[in-house]
Design a protein that fits this description.
Number of domains of chain B: 1
Number of strands of chain A: 22
Largest sheet of chain A: 9 strands, parallel
Shape of chain A: globular
Helix content of chain A: 10-25%
CATH topology of chain B: Rossmann fold
Keywords (chain B): Carbohydrate metabolism, Cytoplasm, Hydrolase, Phosphoprotein
CATH class of chain B: Alpha Beta
Distance between the termini of chain A: 19 Å
Strand content of chain B: 15-25%
Number of strands of chain B: 10
Pfam families (chain B): Glucosamine_iso (PF01182)
Number of helices of chain B: 11
Strand order of the largest sheet of chain B: 1-10-9-6-2-3-5
Number of helices of chain A: 10
CATH topology of the largest domain in chain A: TIM Barrel
Strand content of chain A: 25-35%
CATH superfamily of the largest domain in chain A: Metal-dependent hydrolases
Radius of gyration of chain A: 21 Å
Number of domains of chain A: 2
GO molecular function, one term (chain B): identical protein binding
Enzyme class (chain B): hydrolase
Catalytic activity (chain B): alpha-D-glucosamine 6-phosphate + H2O = beta-D-fructose 6-phosphate + NH4(+)
CATH architecture of chain B: 3-Layer(aba) Sandwich
Largest sheet of chain B: 7 strands, parallel
Order of helices and strands of chain B: HEHEHEEHEHEEHEHEHEHHH
Radius of gyration of chain B: 19 Å
Shape of chain B: globular
CATH class of the largest domain in chain A: Alpha Beta
Structural class of chain B: alpha/beta
Largest interface: A-B, 13 and 13 residues
Oligomer: heterodimer
Chain lengths: 409, 310
């Protein structure tokens, strides 16, 4: 049917024969897209007297918002923490390849590195929209160097740092360029962390607690100063103790501002956390769970040795250890496999599993009015999935940027 | 020559149905069957009308819970390719005043979610009163104008309120009324509260509605009445006199009205009335059998027996 649009001449796409995730439920509705945004068909019908130009039969797929990965260190041989001359091309390789995992936006993550690395790499990272070239870049996630020695995990001890003398100025001297930084992970028990957290929050940078031996009070204090995220819950922090739950206690703390929701990242690859622990966290605070991959350069490649910043990592199947040790460092998980594993391990609904990888990270970064949902006027970044949550096709701004060879609509 | 008495009687009945003014009371066993009969009737009427770009079928439409089953069947017929709404123009009966158009309970939302979004109707061929117009009476007058411009309504489908109203023509409405603003009666507000979380204060108190006279102008009227709570209203509408306190009774004076009911809706009627019309079902069912489909070519359709002439 020809459309009659008074507002725009751009073609209108109607995705039919699908179930879409909307209002926390899978509904049998069509998805309408125009000019890269999700369109309200009722408004189109009554206000513009318009109708669809192109109908696409989705073969009974599930349509979910594109996944957002806020912690990914590299992949396919690319290590974001390497002081390369051409950081962009490495990021581009990863951003293009993760489209097949359903990721439409991500935060390239840098692990603890010497200042020279930050000075060289950060200016080369730019926030940009996704498209056929790859997933969108929301900004960098700087994990370290302001973390605890006792919980450094795979981070190199030599480059750990503190900000006890100059607080925020020390941080600025280390990183230098903050324009494209979206998230900073730090250990809140460090001296003068409150000032630093406050300043970062004031600049719109999300502060995450991780690689830390903080107790619950220190963690709560950090949240009161603006921290909103926990980096890979359970890993690299004190274990839950019934008299001092530590950072884990934030999931159920009543000492944080009432309106504030604390989000927490979980690597649900089946290795970083026992499924029982995953379930405990999910049940305690389901609305805060954010799935992350924490993927490293070896993701997507054959088993073997790869780098992670200043360290050498050994990949064997799904296990990724610092070479010669049993210290976990990152993962080789893909986002869609994390979603599937999360679904299976917790027995949650499909809607919950999908939201943990889309809506919640969007809420964490305060961008849910734009990404992370299929609400009207949001960016048309979405996925077509089959019933077992395998990605069939990936769309960014309404354009198909990846699909399985055997899947055409 | 051997005369088949039964077929002779049937032919005579076609003649009667075709030529004479009639009130038909169609009684089906339950809601599902009543909805289906009504949908089949609408389908046959549209197809036999043979609509085209120069000849649109104008359909008056209701909202509420009663017509939902009928809409579902019509959508099914469209999805099967048996019916198209490409050359159908629709005019809804009413709309709340002051409710945002995208409110879930507005009649615009109702029509979009329950009908328009599932079929192939063009948006410019749908007409629903705008309850947020700056000048409400002008909006009503314009609506009357649009109906006239479309050549009048071929078939107006409506429901009945528990207080016997058609559209929002509440008890006491003029039986020659036209499209206008109406204040809703308490009965109506109570009946509608269930769509507003049971909160009476959330229910709109005014609405724009086609008048009784507007619906009477239609060439044919079909009223859907299902459920025991509508039984008394149906009794008042067809077994008592024409009375402005029960505005559906006005259709006793319309040349061609069809009342489609389920058993429960007939609970207040005389046994004699029900038996009489049930006895006529053999004849009345010829209106929906054979059931026509737009998949047939024009030639195939012309060859099959039609109870109507164009």
């Amino acid at each position: 049917m020809p459309s009659n649009k008074s507002v725009s001449d751009a073609p209108i796409f109607q995705f039919t024969n699908c179930r879409i995730l909307r209002s926390h439920q899978l509904q049998r509705e069509d998805l309408w897209v125009r000019e890269g945004k999700i369109l309200n068909p009722e408004k189109l019908f009554f206000d513009e007297k318009g109708s669809a130009d192109i109908h696409l039969d989705c073969k009974d797929s599930i349509i979910a918002p594109g996944f957002i990965d806020v912690q990914i260190n590299g992949g396919f041989g690319v290590d974001f923490s390497l002081a390369a001359d051409d950081v962009q091309s490495g990021i581009s390789v990863v951003s293009q390849k993760i489209l097949s995992h359903g990721v439409t936006s991500f935060c390239p993550t840098l692990v603890t590195s010497p200042p020279s690395v930050y000075h060289k790499v950060l200016p080369q990272i730019s926030i940009r929209n996704g498209g056929p070239h790859g997933a969108g870049i929301l900004g960098a996630h700087l994990e370290g160097p302001f973390i605890s020695k006792e919980k450094k995990g795979a981070h190199p001890e030599h480059y750990l740092s503190t900000f006890e003398s100059g607080a925020f100025q020390d941080l600025l001297a280390t990183y230098r360029h903050l324009d494209c930084v979206r998230i900073v992970t730090l250990a809140p028990e460090m001296k003068r962390s409150s000032e630093v957290i406050q300043e970062l929050t004031r600049r719109g940078i999300c502060v995450s607690l991780g690689h830390s031996v903080a107790n619950l009070s220190q963690a709560e204090e950090a949240v009161r100063h603006g921290a909103t995220f926990i980096t890979h819950l359970f890993n690299a922090m004190l274990p839950f103790h019934h008299r001092d739950p530590g950072i884990v206690g934030l999931l159920t703390s009543d000492q944080i501002p009432a309106r504030r929701r604390v989000f927490y990242g979980m690597i649900s690859d089946g290795i970083h956390t026992n499924p029982a622990a995953l379930r405990i966290a999910h049940r305690a605070h389901p609305k805060g769970l954010v799935l992350v991959t924490d993927a490293i350069a070896g993701m997507g490649l054959a088993p073997g040795k790869h780098t992670l910043g200043q360290q050498v990592i050994e990949v064997d199947g799904l296990n990724t250890y610092i070479a010669g040790t049993k210290t976990l460092s990152g993962s080789v998980a893909t986002m869609d496999s994390c979603v599937r594993h999360f679904l299976e391990a917790t027995g949650c609904t499909v809607e919950t599993a999908l939201e943990a990888a889309s809506l919640h990270p969007a809420q964490l970064l305060g961008i849910e009015h734009q990404k992370g949902t299929l609400n009207y006027d949001n960016d048309a970044d979405f996925l077509l999935l089959d019933n077992s949550l395998q990605v069939r096709a990936t769309y960014i701004a309404g354009e198909r940027v990846w699909s399985q060879d055997t899947f055409t609509i | 020559m051997y005369f088949n008495v039964e077929s002779e009687l049937l032919c005579l009945s076609f003649f009667i149905l075709n030529v004479q003014e009639t009130m038909k009371l169609i009684i089906l066993e339950n809601y599902a069957q009543a909805s289906e009969w009504a949908a089949k009737y609408i389908r046959n009427r549209i197809i036999q009308f043979n609509p085209g770009p120069d000849k649109y079928f104008t359909l008056g439409l209701p909202t509420g819970s009663t017509p939902l089953g009928c809409y579902k069947k019509l959508i099914e017929y469209y999805k099967n390719g048996d019916l198209s709404f490409k050359y159908v123009k629709t005019f809804n009966m009413d709309e709340y005043v002051g409710l945002p158009r995208d409110h879930l309970e507005s009649y615009h939302s109702f029509m979009w979610n329950n009908f328009f979004k599932h079929i192939d109707i063009s948006p410019e061929n749908t007409h629903i009163l705008d309850g947020n117009a700056a000048d409400l009476q002008a909006e009503c007058d314009a609506f009357e104008g649009k109906i006239k411009a479309a050549g009048g309504i071929e078939l107006f489908v409506g429901g009945i309120g528990p207080d016997g109203h058609i559209a929002f023509n509440e008890p006491g409405s003029s039986l020659v009324s036209r499209t206008r603003v109406k204040t809703l009666a308490m009965d109506t507000i109570l009946a509608n509260a269930r769509f507003f979380d049971g909160d009476l204060s959330k229910v709109p108190t005014m609405a724009l509605t086609v008048g009784v006279g507007t619906v009477m102008d239609a060439r044919e009227v079909m009223i859907l009445i299902t459920g025991a709570h509508k039984a008394f209203a149906l009794y008042k509408a067809i077994e008592e006199g024409v009375n402005h306190m029960w505005t559906v009774s006005a259709f006793q004076q319309h040349p061609s009205t069809v009342f489609v009911c389920d058993e429960d809706a007939t609970l207040e009627l005389k046994v004699k009335t029900v038996k009489y019309f049930k006895g006529l079902m053999l004849v009345h069912n010829k209106l929906v059998e054979p059931l026509y489909s737009m998949k047939e070519t024009g030639a195939e359709r012309r060859q099959s027996k039609k109870p109507y002439s164009d």
